[in-house]
Write a structure and sequence with these properties.
Oligomer: homodimer
Helix content of chain A: 25-40%
Structural class of chain A: alpha/beta
Number of domains of chain A: 1
CATH architecture of chain A: 3-Layer(aba) Sandwich
CATH class of chain A: Alpha Beta
CATH topology of chain A: Rossmann fold
Largest sheet of chain A: 5 strands, parallel
Strand content of chain A: 5-15%
């Protein structure tokens, strides 16, 4: 089966069920396309956790439909009040130059929370898999993007749920974990992902135009360049 | 130091910081009292996840103040829309007779979600411990109340956070895990917990009066009887 054919797989009501964490960004859109191509019946889950870049959630809704998720749910989590991240706390500025170590855009325990919510959703819809777009290459400063974190969550899930207790442990699928941004973009493009519909920028404007200078924009732009593909992102003019 | 003296320990600004998950029920109130008696500076965390028994949250606020938490935060999580539990889904009745296996009052992945949120809070306030009132004796039907689940979460936390990466793994303290309800009540009473302020019932009325017949009420009533202590719970009249 060619990659292009894979992208046209339709929803199989009898296919294995998977919960796919969908942020509206480039990575999670690619994960959804890969899960659909692998014949999964995909229950897309987005979390409205007070992120500044709320147009991501609108992007997630569009992507879920275009890529054939069987449903898309948004859980609202009033997480911003904990503070501690430039992505939820207006008092912390999004940096426009790269830093070292763990970036201020790190959201405390975000992937642990996302996977926990996905685990609850998986229990309700009886899914045996959670698919998540974590990536250890670009986000080496984030502890919860590493393979050992994903493996530890899978061990936790086996002990945490009805299914696990009954001998059907849940699998956490992280297909992007060791791919470069260019490789991710190539895979998604081959599967027909329209990256113009995705939002990566940490500080987009009201029209969802990207700033072009934050870490996420830089990674994305460099990724398209390295993949040898045209960057479909709409960038806004800078002062 | 006697137990009665321990209960009067005041907040030490320099004491070790702990996040204490506080539902407003009997168990978590006891956990907070134990953590305070052990000299912890307690950051109480409640989660408004759409539970039917919302007067629990009001109880949590009162208990946090009375037992000397240094702060109390409530995170709102729109979790009920996932469905799947009698505690959040109005379409599922709370049973008034005991069942077998995992009860319908089980909330999907609840303790995984609670611990994940507590982990985020612990990162923000730089706490090295999360205290949680899970109990494997009374809640043997809940997979996420077992010691192996708690241990797995601790392993996950060591990999998930800045502190873990920097060599300061977080500890999950579950002091009630192998205690009977009577033992929990005896410990809390010795520490001065006013159980009249706590709400255990799965289906209290608007005045926070307990039904007296759900699993939670039955466990609580039997616990006071077995402890040889007066039950301060206000029960409503039954038809």
């Amino acid at each position: 089966m060619s990659a292009a054919t894979e992208a046209t797989v339709t929803n199989d009501p009898a296919g294995p069920r998977a919960v796919v964490l969908l942020s509206g960004g480039l990575d999670s859109a690619t994960v959804l396309a890969m899960a659909r191509a692998a014949g999964r019946r995909c229950h897309a889950l987005s979390v409205d956790y007070g992120q500044r870049h709320r147009c991501e959630l609108e992007a997630a809704a569009r992507i879920a439909v275009r890529l054939g998720a069987c449903e898309h749910r948004v859980i609202t989590l009033d997480y911003g009040q904990l503070g501690g991240s430039a992505l939820t706390d207006p008092a912390i500025a999004v940096p426009d130059t790269p830093g070292t170590g763990i970036p201020v855009t790190y959201v405390p325990a975000r992937n642990t929370v996302m996977l926990a919510l996905a685990l609850g959703y998986a229990e309700v819809v009886d899914a045996a898999e959670i698919h998540i777009g974590v990536n250890a290459v670009d986000y080496s400063g984030y502890p919860d993007c590493r393979p050992e974190f994903v493996a530890a969550f899978e061990r936790l899930a086996a002990l945490a749920t009805r299914a696990g207790v009954e001998g059907h442990p849940l699998h956490v699928v992280a297909p992007l974990i060791d791919l470069s941004k260019a490789e991710i973009i190539r895979r998604g493009s081959a599967l027909g992902v329209d990256y113009a519909a995705t939002v990566s920028c940490y500080a987009p404007d009201d029209a969802a135009r990207a700033c072009g200078v934050c870490d996420a924009c830089r990674l994305r732009r460099d990724g398209f360049a390295a993949a040898g593909l045209a960057d479909p992102t709409t960038y806004r003019a800078r002062d």
